[in-house]
Design a protein that fits this description.
Elements (H helix, E strand, L loop, with lengths): L1 E5 L11 H15 L3 E6 L9 E4 L6 H12 L5 E6 L6 H4 L4 E5 L6 H5 L2 H18 L5 E3 L2 H10 L6 E3 L18 E5 L8 H15 L2 E5 L5 H7 L4 E5 L3 H10 L2 E4 L8 H7 L5 E4 L4 H4 L6 E4 L2 H12 L2 H16 L3 H17 L12 H6 L8 E3 L5 E3 L1
Parallel strand pairs: 1-2, 1-4, 2-3, 4-5, 5-6, 6-7, 8-9, 8-11, 9-10, 11-12, 12-13
Antiparallel strand pairs: 14-15
Helix pairs in contact: 1-14, 7-12, 10-13
């Protein structure tokens, strides 16, 4: 097949995150299996094993994508719309097969980035246009939490398919740091809540000792560096090898995000027997199995308590680390690509039907997951808030 991916960013973009890693692995994976793939996105871009086309800036590319498609890419067998808040609405300008890939529903994120009137427009477009425009297309979610959120918007569950993120496996026994080392990895943006993490560290650090390392760059970087206290380092964005060495030696990955599609870094840490401490929020509760591969907290106060307890209990950390490693070994990128191709073939074969016949995504049955109901999410101060 000839795949055309529509996405906000290339992996080389300074703000690239888990969504870009997923698209890169999917595109490389389908090419490795004899298919063709092209990514259409904003700049900057870099040379890949698949075609990459820059079609404008952050906002202008939404208007330019259909024009570029009509001029150069009509031959694509399947268009994959990677929705980052704003859908590309390919069914409006393409009659041939397409499907939608959603990492997570943004909801309150709009208010973190834009003034109220623009945020309201963004929420409306995401919540109303997405289910309406793709009403006869398959919609791919990266987790059960995202599937639940899509169903809450009105996407029929029979149209939703789940394709989990994967991870590269690693052999050998990881060597953990002798002094306590806690690591956080991600884009420095409001919904990741690293300001909360710094506040927690002021309480936790004196009890645990050691260091907290926050890896990543983003619009919050300058403000967060100004707030960083003793024994906190913020080295910016690291290369893959440097990041892997840090994850391998860490005692815990601390992940304070308010919502994720999946939380790819959780699996990356798990591959090195590093368990995750996070909040019981959408996406994180999918990538972390509480008590088996890490721990989930319901409030800021509970996270601080668990953090101190795990720092003092090497036996518990090792048990969680082994559980995390075992789960990571069962979630390879190869299996992710296989599942994606399976769904892609279904999207192409069933293009002329209205709604696919499946009532429940078979992937959820196979993994024992269930689409969870919408839930309340801890705010920055530990109380309930809406995700």
């Amino acid at each position: 097949m000839r795949f055309l991916f529509l996405s906000w960013r290339d992996l080389s973009h300074p703000l690239a995150g888990g969504s870009e890693v997923l698209v890169d692995n999917l595109a490389r994976g389908v090419v490795a299996r004899g298919h063709e793939a092209v990514l259409m996105c904003t700049g900057p871009v870099a040379r890949r094993d698949y075609g990459v086309v820059s079609v404008g800036g952050t906002y202008s590319h939404y208007l330019r994508v259909p024009v570029r498609y009509l001029r150069r890419h009509r031959q694509a067998d399947l268009v994959v719309d990677v929705v980052n808040g704003v859908p590309y609405c390919s069914p409006v300008w393409r009659r041939r097969p397409s499907m939608c890939l959603v990492n997570h529903i943004h909801t309150d994120h709009w208010g973190m980035w834009f003034p109220p009137p623009i945020a309201a427009i963004g929420r409306t477009v995401e919540s109303r246009a997405l289910p309406a425009v793709y009403r006869r297309r398959l919609v791919v979610a990266v987790s059960g939490s995202t599937a639940s959120a899509l169903a809450g918007l009105g996407v029929p569950p029979g149209q939703i398919r789940v394709v989990h993120n994967g991870v590269d496996s690693h052999e050998g026994r990881p060597v953990k740091s002798r002094p306590p080392l806690f690591v956080a990895v991600g884009r420095l943006v409001p919904h990741k809540r690293y300001d909360m993490l710094l506040r927690l560290w002021r309480t936790v650090g004196p009890a645990t000792g050691g260091r907290l390392v926050i890896v990543g760059e983003g619009p919050e970087a300058e403000r967060l560096r100004a707030k960083a206290g003793p024994n906190v380092s913020m080295p910016g964005r690291l290369g893959e090898e440097e990041k892997r060495r840090l994850l391998e030696s860490a005692w815990l990955l601390v992940h304070p995000s308010m919502v994720e599609g999946w939380g790819l870094v959780v699996l990356e840490a798990a591959a090195f027997e590093t368990p995750t401490l996070g909040f019981d929020v959408p996406g994180v509760r999918d990538s972390v199995i509480d008590g088996r591969t890490g721990r989930l907290a319901g409030s800021e106060e509970e996270m601080a308590k668990i953090w101190v307890e795990l720092a003092a209990d090497p036996t518990a950390r090792r048990a969680l680390g082994r559980g995390a490693r075992d789960r990571a070994r069962n979630l390879s990128w190869a299996s992710t690509v296989s599942r994606f191709i399976e769904v892609a073939e279904e999207a192409v074969a069933g293009h002329r039907s209205t709604v696919p016949p499946a009532e429940v995504d078979p992937a959820l049955e196979l993994t024992g997951e269930r689409i969870p109901p919408p839930s309340r999410v801890p705010t920055a101060h530990g109380g309930p808030g809406t995700a």
